[in-house]
Specification:
5-stranded mixed sheet, about 30% helix, single chain, about 170 residues, Alpha-Beta Plaits, alpha+beta, 3-stranded antiparallel sheet, 2 domains
């Protein structure tokens, strides 16, 4: 959707933060006859909301309980234990870094969306015929960037705000 929105003139792409927790909660219609909402309530939903609040834009943070269920397919880094309002214990959370392939290696997916750039590359999804075309395109893009602004990117301050997402 980000690529579509950029083409339509949306300068800043939509970047969500996600928090995922696993547990038992209550889901359904809650309220009164005057105002009824279909929603989720309970401690597990509260923890998911708290995890979402500590996630970086464009990233996912999961609870230990969720990570235990997905560790065979998702690469993640343990975060420092934290205390959260409304949660009576220290929470161990994990920042998801990417998906694992069949051999257990991290699949590197490159994604960056900023002014002047919409980039997404999953090298494992590229066939050999397209690979050379993509290599040539990337070489041409680097060459054009050097001609437009030689040395750009060499200054550490110019890298501020770049996420360098892989995962």
């Amino acid at each position: 959707m980000n690529v579509k929105w950029r083409r339509e003139g949306v300068e800043e792409p939509f970047r969500v933060r996600m928090g995922i927790n696993t547990g038992i909660c209550n889901v359904g219609n809650f309220g009164s006859s005057d105002r009824m909402d279909y929603t989720i309530i309970g401690g597990e939903a509260n923890l998911a909301a708290r995890l979402q609040s500590i996630a970086e834009p464009g990233h996912i943070v999961v609870s230990y309980e969720t990570y235990a269920l997905v560790r065979d397919i998702a690469a993640a880094d343990a975060m420092a234990p934290i205390s959260m309002k409304g949660i009576g214990r220290e929470v161990i959370s994990y920042a998801i870094g990417g998906l694992l392939d069949e051999s257990g290696a991290v699949r590197h997916i490159f994604s960056e969306h900023t002014t002047g750039l919409d980039f997404y590359l999953d090298p494992t999804a590229v066939d050999s015929k397209a690979a050379e075309r993509i290599r040539a395109l990337l070489r041409d893009a680097l060459s054009a960037m050097e001609k437009a602004a030689p040395g750009a990117g060499a200054n550490p301050a110019s890298a501020a705000g770049s996420s360098g997402n892989t995962g």
